[in-house]
Write a structure and sequence with these properties.
single chain, 107 residues, mainly alpha, two-stranded antiparallel sheet
Amino acid sequence: MALVRLVSSVRRMLQPPQWSFFPQVQLEVLPGVHLPEESVEDADDDALWHACPKSKVTRSRKRIRNNDPSKRLKNIVHLQDCEHCGDKKLRHRLCMGCFKKGVYFTS
């Protein structure tokens, strides 16, 4: 089936357009290779329409999808107090106030 589609697509690509000013060349097929019927080409054309939406997505539906609570930013709940200065810092991170003062390097 895949070979049949490949042969039909190659045949379509090699055919010159109808509006061409050049003389048309008859393509010869290898002996023993049978070209598919035109019904296979119709099946290929139908496959091109599957990705098209049937109607426009309304603004409200789009906003519902994009503003889903699982996609929003989460609150930071893993804050700790710094041992040196008492400022808030993230767990397993350096305190930026102490880092800029050089407390971590002097003690």
